[in-house]
Amino acid sequence: MTAEVPVLTIDGPSGSGKGTISRAVAQRLGWHYLDSGALYRAVAVAAGWADLDLGDAGALVRCAFDTTIAFRDDAFGEPRVIVNGHDATDELRTETAGAAASAIAAIPEVRAALKDRQRAFRTPPGLVADGRDMGTVIFPDARWKVFLTASAEERAERRYKQLKGKGVSVTMDGLLREILARDARDASRAVAPLRPAEEAVRIDTTGLGIEAVVAQVLALLPARMD
Question: pLDDT tens digits, residue range 117-175?
Fold first, then answer.
């Protein structure tokens, strides 16, 4: 049954818009949505709470197995992430959590520990999964695969506006450096490096609005599914 459930994977680097686009597409289709990055960020936050050393692979693997992670919508329909019984949504979205998640994601045993959790989201009527290795590792048999890109400058600007809107003090130069560094880490890691699946449709979101990108993604699926 699981293998028969349709999956659309949307991979891409940080700031490419894959989260926003994936949620919108999932809502249009009435499918489930997997934010795989939130799982790694949840483990990173739990590791921070436990004051774990990011260089201690063994401790981080145990943390990945032991951390409870749940997804819920609040009263406004916005997704919340519950980590070990606590709402950690805001903490997960910080640059610190993102950097820690990127480091943790490079550990093969951590990725293995979270693989089954991600695949468990594949339930009827279908799944839209966003991340960095959804189409290459987690759901290699997905019927549709998309790889979103955008210039590093635009991705930094998007993140800048997002964080400034929340009152977070950041600089464009600092964010650009962090994005370029994360791109390099994600693309060069030994396990599940960031790269498009061979059959993935590439969409450059630079200069495009959300609706334009959503339309391009939905156009890949049979009309009866939209």
Answer: 999 999 999 999 999 999 999 999 999 999 999 999 999 998 888 888 878 888 999 99
Which structure tokens are listed for 20? Answer: 């926003």
Inter-axis angle of helices 172-188 and 95-104, to 10 degrees?
10
**Residue 96 structure tokens:** 């610190």
Written as six digits, the tokens of 225 are: 């599914």
For 72, residues 6+ apart whose C-beta sits below 8 A from its C-beta are: 79, 80, 82
Q: pLDDT tens, 108-130?
A: 999 999 999 999 999 999 999 99
Structure tokens at 17: 């818009």
For residue 162, how many other CB atoms are within 10 A of its CB?
Answer: 14
Q: How far apart are the first and last CA of the chain?
A: 22
Residue 60 in contact with residue 53, Cβ under 8 Å?
no
Q: Tell me whether the omega of the peptide bond preceding residue 124 falls within 30 degrees of 0, making it cis.
A: no
